Amino acid sequence: MDDPSTQAFLLACLTAGGGITGYARTGSIPSIAAGVTVGALYGLGGLRQRNRQPYGVELALLASVILAGSSVPRAMKTMKPLPIGLSVVAVFGLYRFGSLWNGRVLA
Q1: Of 15, 40, 77, 94, which residue is the least packed, with the fewest Cβ within 10 Å?
Q2: What CA–CA distance (Å, rounded) separates 58 from 102?
């Protein structure tokens, strides 16, 4: 589980699955669009990392920034479990992929 590509794939499944679940429960088109888009970014980032192609970490970091930008303010405003959970996922991604990206920039 220490492999960053595996973590990116896990985050892809969580976010895309969450978007699909949100659509199934409430019929929310923005939920499925956002969840699948962020999940696709995580998945593409994980795939590029696994194949040792450039910009894999950056794509996963971009997905985390997008997710954090939408979920953290909502979590702070509403204090509901779903935005808080999404914020935790986003912060994990920001920490994990931000650390990897920072290490590559400084090396």
Answers
A1: 77
A2: 10
Q: Identify the sign of the CA torsion 83, 89, 95, 101.
A: negative
Neighbour count for residue 41 (Cβ, 10 Å): 23
How confident is the model over 6-45, as pLDDT tens digits?
999 999 999 999 999 989 999 999 999 999 999 999 999 9
Closest CA to 16 of 77, 89, 88: 89
Two tokens, residue 59? 């794509």
User: What's the predicted TM-score (pTM) here?
Assistant: 0.91
Tokens for 49? 């990392």
6's tokens = 């595996």
